[in-house]
């Protein structure tokens, strides 16, 4: 008779897969934030597209439940204020 695998082993396997997937999404969000901040500080004309890309990544992560919706909104708000301040200073 075959030995049945425990459900705990499957649960562990699945949680590990989710952890790695979530880790890559969080990393992409952090990278897009850094990219936006660097471009904004250099007053690069591509700052607009970097801001839109960052907002899209934050919304995607919040929609998947990887980060909370409030955390995404807070980060978007702070980056938008930073962007508007940089625009006003020019």
- The fraction of residues assigned to DSSP E strands is under 5%
Number of helices: 3
- Class based on secondary structure composition and strand pairing: mainly alpha
- State the share of residues found in helices, binned by percent: over 70%
- Gyration radius, in Å: 19 Å
* Shape descriptor: elongated
Number of E-type strands: 0
Please outline the major beta sheet: none
Give me the strand/helix succession: HHH
Please give the alpha-carbon distance between the first and last residues.
76 Å
Chain-averaged pLDDT? 93
Given as residue ranges, the uncertain stretches (5+ residues, pLDDT < 50) are none
Question: What's the assembly state of these chains?
Answer: single chain
Can you walk through the features of this model?
This protein is an all-alpha fold. The protein has a domain at 45-90. 81% of the residues lie in helices and 0% in strands. The chain is built from 3 helices and no strands.
Summarize the structure.
This protein has helices at residues 7-41, 47-63, 69-89. It is mostly helical and 90 residues long.
């Amino acid at each position: 008779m075959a030995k049945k695998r425990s459900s705990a082993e499957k649960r562990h396997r699945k949680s590990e897969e989710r952890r790695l997937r979530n880790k890559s999404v969080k990393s992409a969000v952090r990278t897009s934030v850094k990219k936006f901040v660097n471009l904004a500080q250099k007053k690069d004309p591509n700052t607009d597209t970097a801001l839109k890309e960052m907002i899209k990544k934050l919304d995607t992560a919040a929609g998947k439940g990887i980060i909370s919706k409030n955390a995404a909104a807070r980060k978007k708000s702070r980056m938008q204020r930073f962007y508007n301040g940089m625009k006003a200073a020019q």
